[in-house]
Amino acid sequence: MTKTEIIASVASDLDAAEMSVDAAIARATTLVQAMIGARSALELSPVACAGSQAKALEAIASLAAARQAMVECHKELAKDHRRLGYGVYAEGWKPKGEDQERPTEGRILRAV
To answer: What pTM was estimated for this model as a whole?
Structure first.
């Protein structure tokens, strides 16, 4: 593997990890919404299942902390990338998503 391929691989793994944490947060919030909806549909007291709902919300808070750690990891990797002399990895901000074209993916732009 070339240096460019190795760096692109790490960048791809970082992107996948970030998206995984976001997906976990989205699923966990959907769970809480379902729990509240089920309690309402079953005409249960707000006290019913309060413990399990609190645990789900605790998990969301932990996922939020994990997301923040991934953001910090991303910042540190960007610093390392520049410090090691590999230049700028991408030009500007681009929206991410499966339906978006990402022409700079896997391409290293050298600083001159």
So the answer is: 0.72
93-82-84 Cα angle (round to 5):
150
The per-residue pLDDT for range 2-22, each reduced to its tens digit, is: 888 888 899 999 999 999 999
Q: Which of 80, 34, 77, 28 is nearest to 55 (CA)?
A: 28
Instruction: Return d(Cα 43, Cα 35) in angstroms, integer.
Output: 12
Which residue matches tokens 């691989």? 9
If one counts every other C-beta atom within 10 angstroms of the C-beta of residue 62, the result is: 12
Torsion of CA 12, 31, 53, 61, to 10 degrees: 20
pLDDT (tens digit, 9 = 90+) per residue, 23-64? 999 999 999 999 999 999 999 998 999 999 999 999 999 999
> Which residue type does 57 have?
L
